[in-house]
Design goal:
Length: about 500
Amino acid sequence: MTDNLNHLSKYFKQTLKPIVRTNVLECRVCEEVFTIDGIKVPRLLHCGHTVCHSCLLRLRPCMTDQQFLLCPFDRQPTGISQNNICNLKKNFALIELLERLEQSNSEKSILETERLQSNQTCDEDEAHTAVLYCTICMTHLCESCDSTIHFSKTLSKHKRVPLSEKPKEKPKCPVHTTHVAEFTCTQEGCHNSLMCYLCKDYGRHSTHKLALVEVEAENIRKSIVTALQKMTQFMESMRDTAHRIETVIQELEVWAIEDARQRVRQHFEELRTLLAEQENAAISCIETETRGRLCALRQQQQDLTTTRSQVADVCIQCESILDSEDWKLLNSATKVKEVLTTLEQQQQHYAQLGPDFLTPESSIPIIFSRDNRVHIGTKIDMRVVILGLDGAGKTSILSAMRGITLSGPPIPTIGFNVESLEYKNLVFTLWDVGGQQKFRPLWKHYYHNTQAVIFVVDASDRSRFEEAQNELSKIVNERELKDALFLIYANKQVIILQNTIFTIYSQTLFYL
C-alpha cells in the first residue's frame, strides 16, 4: 500500500512539473510554432518580446487617451492605433530563420530522395553514396564530404546541384579531342558525324549542311515521339480488330453455326422424306464453309497478335533510345529510320485491308434455290421498282438492260412489265410500272419488299420537271420505302452510252 502511494505521489509531481521548452521558434504565450504568414506570424512589441498575431488579438487594450497593450511577460506598454494589431512590426529576423528552416527541410528531403535513387559512389570516399555534383570541380560528393571539402571561402562559392540535375556530358570531337563536338553533318548521303567548330569551318564537312547536336537530336526525338504515337494508334487499331475477330469467333462457335444449322433443318423439315439426302449435303456444305472461315479468322488473329507484339518491342526500343545521350542517338538514327520506315509500310498495308478483314461478320448468308440446293453468300435477290412519268423512257431502259434494241417507239405500259436480270452475285427482279396519271395511285401496291427504286426523268422535257418533282417527293416519304435505295436517272440526254447503262446503274445502286 505504501509503495502504491509513493508511486502516485511521484506521478503527480511529474505531471505538475512545468514543461520548459527550448524551441525559440514557438510563441511563449500559446506555445504554438510561428509561421511565415497568417495568424501565427511573429510580431514585435516595444519591449522587445515577440508574440504571435493570434495571441495579440486576444489581449484586451487599455483604454486611455491613447490605446496600448501590456506585454504578457513584463507588462511594458506598447501603443497601438485604432485597435489595429497589423500596424505592429513583424519579427523579420525570426521570419528569415523560419524560411531557412523550411528551405533546409526541403533540401534534406531532396537529398534523401537522391540517396535512395542514386547508385553513384562518392569521388572522395567510395564507401559513401554521392548525392551532390559540383559543376566547377566536376566531382560527385556525399553530404559529409561536401561539408569537409567545400568549407573554404573559395570552394564554398562552387555551385552544387542534386545528382539528378547533373548536366549531361558533351562528346568530344574525334579529330580534336580537346574540343567539344557541337555540330553534326546533316548532308544527304553523309553519315552523321560529330565535329567541333574547327572541323566545321576547315574540315571536310565545311561545305555540307550542318546543324547543332542538340537541335538535330531534338528533331530525331520529335520524329520518334510522332512515330510512337502512330504506332500506338496502329496497335490499338490492331487490338480492336483482333477483339472483333475474337467476338466473331465466339459467336460462330456459340450460336452462329448452330443458327445456320437450325435454319437449314427448319427448311428441310417439311420435306424430310423426300429431301433427306439434300439436307445432309447442305449441312456438310455449311460445315465446310464455317471451318474454312474459322481457320481464316484464327490465322488473321494470330498474324495481328504477332505483328502487334513486334510493334510493341520496337516501341520499347525507341523509348530506350530516347533516354540515351545525343551522340549515341545520332549514331543510331539511321537504324531508327529504317525501323520506322518498315513499320510505316506495315501500317499502310494494314490500312489498305478491306472491310472483310477489319470488320468481319459472324452471320452466315444462306440462299435456297428452287431445287433445294443451299447457296452460301453466292446470290442475293433484289426487288427493284422502275417509276416515273409517262413517256420518260422506263420501258426503253428495261429493254436496254436486257440487251434488246427497240425498232420503234414503245407502246405506253398498261399495268406493269417484270423482268429478272442477273449481274455478278445479284439477281434483280425489275418491275416497270406504268406512269400515266390514272396508274400512279397503284404504285403503292408495288412497294412491299422493295430494296431499290429507279425514278426516271425525261431530261428533254423541262416543262414536266415540277410534276416529276412532286411525284418523287411523294415516293420518298413512303414508309415502306424508308430503307430502299434511290436512283434518279436523267433519260433522253444528248450522249447516252447504251452499252454501259447496266454497269452504271448497278454501281450507282450500291453507292446511294
